[in-house]
Amino acid sequence: MQENQSPVRTRMAPSPTGEMHVASMATLLKNYAFAKKHHGQFILRIEDTDKTREVVDGVEQIQSIIKKFGLDWDEGPGKNGAYGPYIQSKRLKLYQEKAEELVKKGRAYYCFCSKERLEKVRQEQQARHQAPRYDQHCRHLDEDEVKKRLSAGESYVIRLKVPENQEIVFTDLLRGEITFNSGQVDDQVLLKSDGYPTYHLAVVVDDHLMKISHVMRGEEWISSTPKHVLLYQAFDWALPIFAHFPLFLNPDGKGKMSKRKGTVSAQSFLDRGYLPEALLNFLMILGWSAKDQRELMSLGEYINEFDPRDLSMNSVIFDIKKLNWLNGIYIRRLDKKELKERLKAFIPEEFPQEKFEKILALVYERMVTLADFAELTDFFYKEIDYPAELLFKKAKDQQDLLKEQIQQSKLAIESLNAFDLNSLEKAIRKLQEKNDWHKGQYFMFLRVAMTGRTATPPLFETMLVLGSDLIIKRLDLASKKIEKHE
Ligand code: GLU
């Protein structure tokens, strides 16, 4: 699909600053799929030049979450590759050399301005209602003075010498040609006084040296791209192909999906019982659809069909209902053994393992996430409690009736010859008919007494799994609640 003939090499370049955002996982998936589709390579590069934001184990977290989603990288940390190291903090010398190379070419300059001076300039600009930017104070220092100050050991940064009034043009796969004017770009810091590169320098140097053919990332980086284009030009390097993917909006459609409206890390979805394959499928169809519009899709199918040019340019709503729907489907696609395995992390210790299959059969259809299992089934083995009102269908004038129902139900259970579904159901139904009890009332009453809830799996199956001892115990509990209620 690309005009130049170089092999497709895409990359994901996360910073190890905490759990990976689900939108970053979506970006990663697209880069991965695109590389695979074109028989190219997908590179993982760690952008750890901002040490103040780094978290312990940040790199390991990134590697582990990618693997949990069944994805992998061809080159990057822990893998061989011809263009390493793939961790930016291990490449500092290289960025320093490249920054100095630009100074020599007259495309960058040393800047000795102190923090205090920069702050003063900023305040003056603010007072004049101007956008804050560097006033180019050091741009025209003469060479001798620069040399002197360098050899005196003065602290410095290296800044990009942004050309005046020049059109900056680049092509975005989704948006076509984008034009900026260089007047909109500040004389960007490339190398900081501690010898670390800024994101802009490091990203361009690495994307070039790692032979990245397609730089595909979130839309939030689009305003940085003109700076990068200027850098490519300053180095006399060919531009890669750019693509900027739309943002995700919160499920309510309001605002960029962010931590303020709930957890957004890819890991947090796994913790809440979403299957990685369901979440991946969901991310595939967020803002993109297959030619035949089908929504269920394997990774292999996606790799075959994905084309970034078909992505919507509009922000996409993170439609949690669709994710839930997909997750339910994926849960029911697992065979029971596999499902049991995946549920392990979600089942509390006290769960009666010997009843697992029977209980699973009762809630299987209703599970949206793996975490639902515990919530849907805890009444099978935990003490229950509920407001007494739940036992009453209408007003409080039913005490006598309820007491009667409890007593007769207990008798019926105790006098069962065999405790199986058929006998149990027959006995309870017979009771209802014989007494001419209102069906809805009696069965709901029983359901609440057995489970503490009004929505449960089928009543008789549930009672069967509970067993006669628990049934009696719970009828006694209901009886106590009714008495107290009088
Ligand atoms: N390090 C940047 C990030 O954390 C990478 C942006 C890019 O892909 O250029 O997202």
Please summarize what this structure is.
This protein has 486 residues and is mainly alpha-helical. It is 44% helix and 9% strand. It has a domain at 388-485: Arc Repressor Mutant, subunit A (Orthogonal Bundle).
Explain what the structure shows:
The protein is mainly alpha-helical. Helix content is 44%, strand content 9%. It has a domain at 388-485: Arc Repressor Mutant, subunit A, CATH 1.10.10.350. The strands form 5 sheets. The protein has a 3-stranded antiparallel beta sheet. The protein has a two-stranded parallel sheet with strand order 1-2. Strands 5-6 form a two-stranded antiparallel ribbon. Helix 7 links the parallel strand 8 (214-218) and strand 9 (241-245). Helix 17 (439-451) packs across helix 19 (468-485). The mean pLDDT is 95. It binds glutamic acid. Residues 13-15, 47, 203, 217, 221 line the site of glutamic acid.
Secondary structure elements and their pairing?
Elements: E1 9-12, H1 22-37, E2 41-44, H2 58-68, H3 92-104, E3 108-111, H4 115-127, H5 143-151, E4 157-160, E5 167-172, E6 176-181, E7 189-191, H6 199-209, E8 214-218, H7 225-235, E9 241-245, E10 248-249, H8 266-271, H9 276-284, H10 299-305, E11 316-317, H11 320-333, H12 336-343, H13 356-363, H14 372-377, H15 399-414, H16 421-435, H17 439-451, H18 459-466, H19 468-485
Parallel strand pairs: 1-2, 8-9, 10-11
Antiparallel strand pairs: 3-4, 4-7, 5-6
Helix pairs in contact: 1-10, 6-7, 9-11, 15-16, 15-19, 17-18, 17-19
Bound molecules: glutamic acid.
